[in-house]
Here is the input.
Amino acid sequence: MKRKYTHIQIIESEIIRMRDEGKTRKEIAESLRLEKGQIKDWVRRYNRQQKLQQVGIVPRHQGRPSKELVSSDRGKDYEIKRLKMENELLRDFLQIAGKR
Here is the structure.
């Protein structure tokens, strides 16, 4: 039974090696117990990445950024902005209450 989903990045080196040996997509798919379409899609993505790298363009990840990127880059800016706003609110409250 063929697997429907697999992390293809784990077996990239095997697929590249088999392609260099001259095996067809069907042969690669059968030996790795994958669908032929999975190999076809991966080869298309891999070729596109290689062409972009030859030109000097670093391919960017598409879609929603990972949680780690959001928390590290944008998270710090958001936290600073939130703390500044909180300080202003507390300052205004203390001024209205007559404590300052």
Notes: The helical segments are 12-20, 25-32, 36-55, 67-97. The chain has a mean pLDDT of 84.
